[in-house]
Each structure stands twice: as structure tokens, then as C-alpha cells.
């Protein structure tokens, strides 16, 4: 008896990965390790602020390269998994890379790199002293970790990491407006986080596991006996609040206009997309039957989110507030893809998420540059920008067209996919909402261009503008130009991104390869 017990204890293959981990598999944790390491180095160099921008930009260049290599490995070899501590899944904490996660991770790294370069000329000594660049790197650790984790509780952990760093970023400057915005942002996001944690605890009580692949395997057997609809509803509400979907979107327009414009650009480009990613991962991959049952609720929320967001943008005088409502409207399009649930609908949601991450960052940076040229953010104080900076006006017009979903820019194609997908399932009213929202958004952007760019300076009305600041340094132009070129390129040549989005959607709808990557080293077949 003792001998058999000793033999069982010494048989580590029953609980641990005993074969050497391939060197290429370490690639999956390097993006997170790099972000955390760079943030720690920057905190240790808090008295040498001149090094913050070069170190952060170098780290983000490396992050882009690592994420690109990770995407290439997934495209060529399929999803793969690395389990921490050598424990076999589902006991060990898994990092799993698939097309959806790696596409979003790479896009997030590109957006963060653009923001870091812009900040090198825009964030003053006070902002650096209070930790802009360390917070940026920790934010990227949270975002990247959320996209790559294969464990539902660790998705919650990475949400917490990105939220804590975003709290630090939103209060940089400590103005009354920033403190007010940070308070609303913090309280309402903490409510969403609490709902998420409650749902995770409820899920563990039902499934006895937090590994996403294991949950996907067990869900079918538990569907007739466990309250999975209640669980799915909790996750939908929590992630909808994170994504700023109607009716739990009121925190975003109350806060996104308050921080420095580069921080708003990061928030508009990244944070709500993590909520959309979580909805895709949980509702499409783990609970597809429950998603189908909730599809009408999600679709109604999507339609109201996109239409009311566009109407809110049309009503704003402050460009920053307007862009906050544009972010909300874009969330509606992605929610519509999730509600439709077909491979093409999910592909449209993924494509739109990638497009929105780049576009919204570029739009906020463009708003910052317009304010530097014109002396303010309000439509009543800005005018004559076309005469003052024709090349910048051309970039802004291209971004406005992309945000409106007009060809030949990147926003056109995901909307086409979503409208067709809605029509294919007979949801004409949802397709109409998509088109109506795009029309209202076009009017909102047209209003901005006519008043701020095309209107002669002498025709400006309202309060006299503040004294215009000097234009930004050349390093701040490069991110805006680069992001705009991406928007134009993927509008003219959408095939590669559309193909990757379709493959990613297929992987979510049929997660067999994802599950096999997790359990290929042992454990469940």
C-alpha cells in the first residue's frame, strides 16, 4: 500500500508537465512580462524623467514586434497554450494565444506606441513626474494579459490591473474636472468589476474550474441542470458596463473628456474594447446557447447604443465629449455582431474592434492637435483650421470619413459585413439601425469639419478663442499620420484583415483547436 502511494506521488506526469516547454511557447508570456518589467524600471527611474519616454517607446516597439511574432505563430501553427508552474490544465493558470487575442494584442500595442510617441512632446514634466509612462506600461500589461489569458479569474485580475493604471492616468494634472471625471469613472467601473467577480464566483461554484477550455467542455453537460442563463446574464451585464453599452454607458461621456488628450486617446482606443473582447470570449465561445437566448436583448441594447451614441455626438459642442459618444456608438456596432452570432456577424464585430482601436486613438490625437492650433476644444471657438493647416485638415477629413463608415476607409467594410449579416438572419431593423447610426455620425463629423475647418476664422461665433498654443513638435505628427495611413490602407486593401477576422470568428464559434491547445500536453483529451 505504501509502495503504491509512493509510486503515485512520484508519478509527476499525472499532475505536472514533465516534458520541456518549447522555447517558442515562451513567446506567449513575453508581452506581459515586458510591459510589467518596463513599468517597474520606469518607477525605479522616477528621478530620471528624461529617460522615461525613450525607455517606454523602446519597450513598446519591442512589444509590437513580440505581438507580431505571436500573431505569426498563431496564423502559421494555430492556437497554443503555456501553463504556469508546470501544472497540467485545468489546475494551472493558462495563457492561450488564438487569432482573436493576438490580433487585438498587436493592435493595442500599435495604439500604445503611437500614444507614447505623441506624449513625448505633449506630457509635461509634471505628468512624467506623477507617472504617465509607468502607468502606460502597466495599462498595457493589463490589456495584453486580458487578451491572452486562458483563465476566467485571471481575466478579472488583468481587468483590475488595467483599471488601477487607468485611475492613475485619468487624474494626472489633478484639476477639479479631472477629479470629478475620475470619481465617476472609478465608482461605476468598480460596480462593473464587482458584478464580474460575483459572476466568476458563481461560475466556479457551478463548474469547479476557471479554465476557459475546461468550461467550454463542461458547459454542454451542465446545460440541463445548472442555471447557466443566470450566469450568462450576469456576465453580459458586467461586460456591457465595461464596454459602455446602453443602458450602462453613462460613465463614459462623464469621464473620457477630462484627462489629457493622449490619455483620452488611450482610453477611447483600448479600454472599452477589452469589455467587447470579454463578451466575445465568454458569450460566443463559452456560452453560445445562452447567447442565442439573450440575442434579442443584446441586439436591442446594440441598436440603442449605436443610435443614441450618434445622437449624443451630434448634440455636443466640445469635441472631446463628441468623441466619447462616438466611442459609445462604435460599441453598438460590435454588440450587434455579437447579437447576430453568425460567423460573419462575429467577424464583423472583430473587424470593427480592430478598426475602432486605431481610429478612435487617431481621432483624439487629431482633436488635441486642433486644440493646439485653434486654442480650444469647442466648436464655437474653433474655425479656419483648413487655411491654417491644410495637410492636417486632410488627415482629419479622412478620419471623419472612416468614423462615418464611408468608403474607401477602414470603417466601411465592417459595417458592410454587419449589415449583410443582419439581413441574412432577417434582422432588418438591426441593419436599419446600423445604417441610421452611420448617417447621424456622418452629420456629426460633417458639422465638426464645416465649423472648425472650413468656416473662415472671421466668421467664428461665441466666446473669443483662447490664445492659440504653438503647434506640436514633429514627433507628435508622426503617430497621427501613421494611424491615419493604417485607416486608409485597410480601407483600400481590407482582404487580409477581413480574412483574419473571419478565421478568428470561426475559432470562437468552434473552439476545438483552442481546447486542444490547452489539453494537448495531458489532462483531458
From TrEMBL:
It is found in: Cell membrane; Membrane. It holds the Pfam family Proton_antipo_M. It is a multi-pass membrane protein. It comes from Rhizobium nepotum 39/7. Keywords: Cell membrane, Membrane, Transmembrane, Transmembrane helix. Belongs to the CPA3 antiporters (TC 2.A.63) subunit D family. It comes from the Bacteria. InterPro entries: CPA3_Na-H_Antiporter_D (IPR050586), NADH_UbQ_OxRdtase (IPR003918), ND/Mrp_TM (IPR001750). Its main location: membrane. This is Cation:proton antiporter. Residues 150-441 form the NADH:quinone oxidoreductase/Mrp antiporter transmembrane domain. The chain crosses the membrane at residues 26-45, 52-72, 92-118, 130-149, 155-173, 185-207, 227-252, 264-288, 294-315, 322-340, 346-367, 388-406, 426-451, 472-493.
Amino acid at each position: 500500500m505504501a509502495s503504491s502511494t509512493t509510486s503515485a506521488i512520484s508519478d509527476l506526469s499525472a499532475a505536472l508537465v514533465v516534458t520541456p516547454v518549447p522555447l517558442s511557447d515562451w513567446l506567449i508570456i513575453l508581452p506581459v512580462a515586458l510591459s510589467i518589467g518596463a513599468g517597474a524600471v520606469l518607477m525605479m527611474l522616477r528621478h530620471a524623467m528624461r529617460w522615461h519616454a525613450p525607455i517606454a517607446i523602446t519597450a513598446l516597439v519591442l512589444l509590437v514586434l513580440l505581438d507580431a511574432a505571436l500573431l505569426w505563430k498563431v496564423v502559421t501553427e494555430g492556437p497554443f497554450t503555456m501553463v504556469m508552474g508546470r501544472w497540467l490544465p485545468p489546475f494551472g493558470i493558462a495563457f492561450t494565444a488564438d487569432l482573436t487575442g493576438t490580433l487585438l494584442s498587436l493592435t493595442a500595442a500599435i495604439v500604445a506606441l503611437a500614444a507614447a510617441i505623441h506624449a513625448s512632446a505633449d506630457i509635461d514634466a509634471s505628468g512624467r513626474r506623477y507617472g504617465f509612462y509607468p502607468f502606460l506600461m502597466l495599462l498595457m500589461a493589463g490589456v495584453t494579459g486580458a487578451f491572452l489569458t486562458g483563465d476566467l479569474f485571471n481575466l478579472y485580475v488583468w481587468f483590475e490591473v488595467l483599471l488601477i493604471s487607468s485611475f492613475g492616468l485619468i487624474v494626472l494634472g489633478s484639476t477639479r474636472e479631472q477629479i470629478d471625471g475620475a470619481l465617476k469613472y472609478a465608482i461605476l467601473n468598480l460596480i462593473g468589476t464587482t458584478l464580474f467577480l460575483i459572476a466568476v464566483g458563481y461560475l466556479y461554484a457551478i463548474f469547479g474550474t476557471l479554465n476557459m477550455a475546461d468550461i467550454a467542455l463542461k458547459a454542454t453537460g451542465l446545460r440541463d441542470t445548472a442555471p447557466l442563463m443566470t450566469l450568462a446574464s450576469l456576465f453580459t451585464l458586467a461586460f456591457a458596463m465595461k464596454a459602455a453599452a446602453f443602458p450602462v454607458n453613462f460613465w463614459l461621456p462623464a469621464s473620457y473628456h477630462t484627462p489629457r488628450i493622449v490619455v483620452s486617446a488611450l482610453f477611447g482606443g483600448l479600454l472599452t474594447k477589452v469589455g467587447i473582447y470579454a463578451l466575445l470570449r465568454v458569450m460566443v465561445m463559452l456560452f453560445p446557447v445562452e447567447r442565442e437566448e439573450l440575442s434579442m436583448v443584446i441586439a436591442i441594447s446594440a441598436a440603442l447604443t449605436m443610435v443614441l451614441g450618434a445622437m449624443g455626438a451630434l448634440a455636443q459642442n466640445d469635441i472631446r465629449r463628441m468623441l466619447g459618444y462616438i466611442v459609445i456608438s462604435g460599441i453598438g456596432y460590435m454588440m450587434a455582431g455579437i447579437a447576430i452570432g453568425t460567423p460573419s456577424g462575429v467577424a464583423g464585430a472583430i473587424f470593427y474592434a480592430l478598426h475602432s482601436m486605431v481610429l478612435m486613438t487617431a481621432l483624439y490625437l487629431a482633436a488635441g492637435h486642433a486644440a493646439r492650433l485653434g486654442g480650444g476644444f469647442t466648436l464655437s471657438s474653433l474655425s479656419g483650421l483648413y487655411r491654417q493647416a491644410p495637410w492636417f485638415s486632410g488627415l482629419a477629413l479622412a478620419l471623419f470619413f472612416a468614423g462615418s463608415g464611408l468608403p474607401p476607409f477602414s470603417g466601411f467594410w465592417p459595417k458592410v459585413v454587419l449589415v449583410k449579416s443582419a439581413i441574412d438572419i432577417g434582422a432588418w431593423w438591426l441593419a436599419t439601425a446600423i445604417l441610421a447610426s452611420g448617417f447621424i455620425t456622418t452629420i456629426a463629423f460633417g458639422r465638426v469639419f464645416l465649423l472648425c475647418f472650413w468656416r473662415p476664422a472671421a466668421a467664428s461665433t461665441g466666446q473669443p478663442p483662447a490664445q492659440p498654443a504653438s503647434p506640436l513638435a514633429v514627433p507628435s505628427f508622426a503617430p497621427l499620420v501613421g494611424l491615419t495611413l493604417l485607416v486608409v490602407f485597410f480601407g483600400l486593401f481590407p482582404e487580409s484583415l477581413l480574412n483574419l477576422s473571419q478565421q478568428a470568428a470561426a475559432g470562437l464559434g468552434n473552439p476545438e483547436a483552442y481546447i486542444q491547445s490547452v489539453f494537448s500536453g495531458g489532462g483531458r483529451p
